[in-house]
Every structure is written in C-alpha cells, then in structure tokens.
Amino acid sequence: MDAGRDYKVVPMGIENRQYLRDEYDDTAGRFRGPSSKPMTVILVVVTVAVFILQLMTKTSIAQPGAAPSLVQGWLALNFEDVMTRGQIWRLLTYAFCHDQSNLLHIVFNMMVLYSIGGVLRQLLGDREFLWFYLVAAVFAGMCSLAFYRLVGISAQVIGASGATMAVFCVVALHYPRQKVLLMGVIPIEFRWLLAGFVAIDTYPMIQQVAEALQNRQTASQVANSAHIGGLIFGFLYFRWNMGITRWWDQFARRIALRRRRGHLRVFTAAAEPESNLTSQVDDILEKISREGEASLTSRERNFLAQASKQYRKGKS
After folding, report:
1. Of the candidates 149, 140, 124, which has an alpha carbon nearest to the alpha carbon of residue 292?
2. All residues at 6 or more sequence positions from 292 whose CB lies less than 8 Å from its CB, including other chains
3. Which of 28, 38, 112, 308 is the most buried (most CB within 10 A)?
4. Distance (Å, rounded) from C-alpha 192 to C-alpha 314?
5. For residues 230 and 95, what is the distance between their CA atoms, to the nearest angstrom?
C-alpha cells in the first residue's frame, strides 16, 4: 500500500454516548454512515491540492538525498530540519504530502479519510474532528522521529497514514463488531482488522530495533512507527474521552480572563421563564445531535447544567 525511495520513508494508508447510538443499530447489525462529510471533504481537497503542487514543482534532476519536488522539500518531515533548524511546521505539513511515484499512496489514504473519517466526523462534530486529525498527525510524526532517531535511521517521512490510522482506531473502538470487506471481498470485523494493523506494523519495528542493536540498518519504504503512533493516539483519545476543542476553549478562556483581570463583575442571572428555558435546551440538544457534544461552548455547557438543576428543583 506504500511506495517510496531509498532516501525516504513513507507512511501508508491504514462507551458510545446515548444520543449517538442511532449511528449503529446493534440488533439489526447494520451500520449507517454519514450523509455528508464537509470537514473530511475539505481535508481531502487540501491534501490533493498539495499533491498537485508536488507534481508541478517536480525537480528535473534527481540528486542523492534530495526531495523529488520543491514542495516536498519544504513540507516533508525529517529529524535534522525539525530539531536542528527549528522547522517545526514539518510535524504537521508532512501529512499533506504523498509519494509522487505511487498514486495508490494518496488514493488509499484519502479513501480512508473520506469514508471512515466521515463516520468519526459525525461522532465528534466538524471542529473537534479537525483538531483530532491535525493533532493525530503531529503525534504520529513525533513518534516516527523518536523511533528513527532511536534506531539510527535517517528518514524523510510523508503521508497522511499516521492521522488516518488514528481515525480508523477510534471508529474501530466505537464499533468493534462492525464488518467491512477487506480488499472488497473478505468480510472482517473492525476489531480484527485493527489487531492486524497493530501486528503488521509492530513486527518491522522490532526487526529494526534488533538490527540497530547489531549496528545494522535496513532501508524501509514504510514508516511503521508513524502508523503505530497514530494508533496509540487514537486509543488514548478514546480511552481518556479526550475533548481537544474543550481543552483549547478552556485554555483560551484562561488567557482571556488573565487579560481582563480586575475588570470582572460577578452577577446572578435572572431565572429564565420555563417556556424559554425549554426552547433553549431543545436548541442545544439539537446542536449536539447535529454536530457532536464537542461542538458545545462552555456557556452552553453551563446553561445545560443550570437547566438540569431547575428541572430537578421543579420536580421536587
């Protein structure tokens, strides 16, 4: 599924909350995918645009160790440029570059991003999904850099595989028994496909570590460490019920409060009429169903908490 050259390593392509359970009908065994995928479409379009720029800036004379295009030379990930020259943007931009000599590299990754990513987008909402995808790419890139530094391999990493692996991992953990057709023929459950990816990517890494201990190096065309990094991030995201958007909003709110320190006033809001309260609660619940819980602002979360208290007080 991957292709590369001898100068680079290319990463390849690959609890439920109550109000989200209608996505998967466990009794009928059917999985309903998303009807629209705006954020996934945007990411696919941007990635394809970068790939076209790679082709347009392709270098005519190949030099040993040189990137095959100017764009890839600016965006690809390698230890020296990031750690020595401080070009930290490469920790993210590498995920938008793909192997120019193997069209399947970008095709497979974009298929996973569009289809599986569309399912995750409906679970998280557009904003949280974008944060998840970008952070997963950075995390996978850092894991890859650390691993190749450990085994003493100088590698250039490109491809969205680390991020798409993270996407697949979270969806597989949400719907472990959902079946897909492997290679379009063999039905297999998500959980077994996930286990297969872990095994396929872990074994080459063990081999590379063993070779490093024997002072030997073997060139690789697949950045398995980036895949494993993406899978680890996806597992941690699911296990810890992360909310990157919520974390960012909390961080931004703290910064804003520090800037406004000394100019804050404490007041008690007047009680909402019951009809108006019910209407606002309905609007927020509809937003959760449409965009995911992660799309709620802190004000909306606080409003739901206050409304819940008023409802309980009214019942008592």
Report:
1. 124
2. 20, 122, 123, 124, 125, 128
3. 112
4. 49
5. 12
